[in-house]
Input
Amino acid sequence: MPVNLSERDEELRLLEKLYTGCGQRKGAVVLVNGPVACGKTALIRSFADWATERGGRFLSMTASASERLDRLGLVDQLMSAMRAAGAAAAPLAGADDGLPGSGRVPLAVLQRICRAVTEFARERTLVLGVDDVHFADEASLDCLRYLIRRIDSSAILVLLAESSCHERELRTLHAETLHLPYCHRIRLGTLGADGVAGQLAAHPATGSAARETAEVWAETSGGNPLLLHALIEDAEDAPYAGEPSERAEADAQDALPAGPESAAPRAPLPGESFRHAYLRCLHRCEPAMLATARAIAVLGEPVAPDLIGDFLGDDLTSVRRSIAELNTAGLLSGVRFRHERARLAVLADIPVKDLFAMRARAAELLHESGAPAAAVADQLMATHESVRAPWHPHILREAAREAIDAGDIDAGITYLRHAAAVSTDATQQAEATAALAQAQWLVDPVKAARHLAQLSRMVRAGLLTGPDALVVVGQHTWLGELAQADALLRTIEARAATEGADAWDGAGTPPAAVHSDLVLARLWLSFCRPGPGRDTGEAAPGVRADAPGLKAPGSMSPRTFLTLATGLTGDDECDRMAHRVLRGARTGSTFEATLCALVLLIECYRLDEAVAWSERLLEEPWNRHVPMRRALLETIRAAAALRSGDLKVAGEAAQTALGLAAPEAWGIALGLPLSLAARAGTELGDFDTAMSYLNLPVPMVMFDTPFALPYLHAVGRYHLAIGRPRTALRNFESCGELMVEWRLDVPELVDWRNDAAAALLAMGENRRARALLEEHPSLLGEAPTRARGVALRLLAAAGPPQGRLPRLQEAIRILRACGDRLELGHALADAEAARSAAERRTAPAEPPCPQAAPWTYVEDARDHSRLPWHEEPEPRGKLPAGPASASPEVPESLTALTEAERRVGALAAYGCTNREIAGRLFITVSTVEQHLTKIYKKLKVRSRADLPESLIRFADVPCSPNGR
Output
């Protein structure tokens, strides 16, 4: 490809001037110096064309490292060129046999060569171009130096191109020539952005991108003309007119700065031409520079010069000199390659056997220097198990932990596979395999289960101890292999009790953490394997045998389990305890404790906080890219959203959770996301979606665990919603039987009694429903729990009409405090229907149907509970302490008002605002406004301030002004 010179005008003018002087018998010598491939040869050839056009002769010679041992090889090229140009005699003819094999060239030979050249230049100006003079043999350099000292009065111009990195090899030449008055030196550098733009503009493939991306091309090529033209060749091989490949687009995005003007096709895309050109440059450098470039490629970027020196066994000064020369040539930027393709080209150029040894050496040095575990692990991975050392598995496991914490689960698994392969003893292999199974579980528990048989044997043999051994127990439990999990856990507990904490703690974990992990494993297994006759085994060393939850796990409530699982004790409220764990989710708490803390927030009715924490944790990198962690967090988010009444979010979160992990990957926990997805669909009236989830096959072993309870509950709610109360009742009663058998009969787990009562009401069996509901509060106690609120709502429906409204009002108060907007909507709807019936004085025996969907009342209730009150008018009277037991006598002045108008007017007279009145009476604001308009008209007043105080006695809802 023709080479167009850029930024070389000044140098060409100097050469033309010297050529003109040669016509006046003023010889000259020019040393063209510069980094490798910076355009020295192109400059000489361009000038040669110019001189030839003006009648001069140009004789070209090129030295080569491979011919450095050929004595007078460069002189032989000169003589051949002279003969080709018409010279009559050969100065070396007949003298070859008399030349010594080494040492200085005889004076007679030097004279004959010099005379032949000067005579050849008598007729026309002679230009001698010597490329790569630093590779010339010493005998040829002797002849060259002899000639240069004698051309000052001849028509000879000598051009010597030398690489700056080989200056030390030409010390003698420089010493004997640079001081001569007719000796000149030209220093060439790499091209700047303008020079690069000029080169780009000269080629069709890059002409359109010359101005916009010249700086990017200059950065990628380092301004090195050879690399720049190689990039242009790659551009011609992959025309910009076509659609760029996916890899090309990615490379372009890496090369270009971000911005609206950046377009992938305009960026340089290094290809084969670039790779070959880059390696040509390196191999033309001195060996130390090639070695330095290889060291940087192997060690990774960035790397300190002293580490490179240790790697090469070279002194720091030499390393810095090589780095400086590589930067001058545009091959490096600091201690970094300018493009990843350049680094890969250097690595591919290293012989495979040497590369493995270099990788091993790099891993050792990086490990000793305290480099990040991932950097060391990457070097070990690149050795392809060709070397092994006892510390290799440990650093690989550390790198895996860091990768998983950063969300790069695939890299973590790769590190752990390598750690298991390079383990030097059985214990190391056991620990690495357990860590591998744990990491694979985060992606696919089914694949992780392939290691369980081997790991179980390792636990029984004592090769796997500490938290690593509990990984096996946890995975057996997750898959429903509860007997195997219990047997292994008993083995671990027995070994811990017999050998002591230090012996059991083989992984180096602090004893307190070891005990906590052991207790948590037993708690989890006990919770998943409930019921009498399933004892827990021995307590871990250092843990009290009478610790909560260890003696009779079947009687342990979910809240107790969650509190123990989070490792929190004390008198703090549960939400404070949960927040303490969640704030340390990255540094101090295990992921299992984090999950328990989130569920604890739900149980403490901190539903919005549970949703917010779940969403926040889902955005963290150590969760966002880990499928099973995401799935579990989405499940908790769905549970909190469902209870808070946000059915759309609940359905989407449950669907996401099931999409992240196949049904078989959920093990015994499959019932939880399925139940949430089905419940959300049922409550939204999307029965087809709900049934699609309930039709999915579930493992039979799940029905031996508490995860069957929400699943059976969801099936019952579905059948109740589609009008099959008898089928629903059977499912609810099945829940109840299991919960009683397992000693888990607490409504916070599954509120089966209330749902069974709802089914009985739907069947028309009010007496049975009322009996079940009246038994329920005795089990609940006096606490204002969600179950109590639901029970009061259902009791209102099951009881006589006269007592419905007070019960519904109390249910609404409790459910609003609990934050369960779903049940709150049902209660508000029932209250509106009951009030409407009372106003019509119909008092039907059956519970009246609400006139609007529950969501109408839920949204209205949200507005009431969040309204910011600023003005607080003084009360104008005293409200009764509770609902009136009998209707007060109506004064003659108020007989024109209806009962509903008197209730609204009473609260208005007391000083409540329209919105507060609506909230207290469970009606809409517009209804309040309509009532007040009629009241003002009938009483002939203009505002609520004119309302008579006698109205206040008709308030049947306890109230104080502005909700106080």
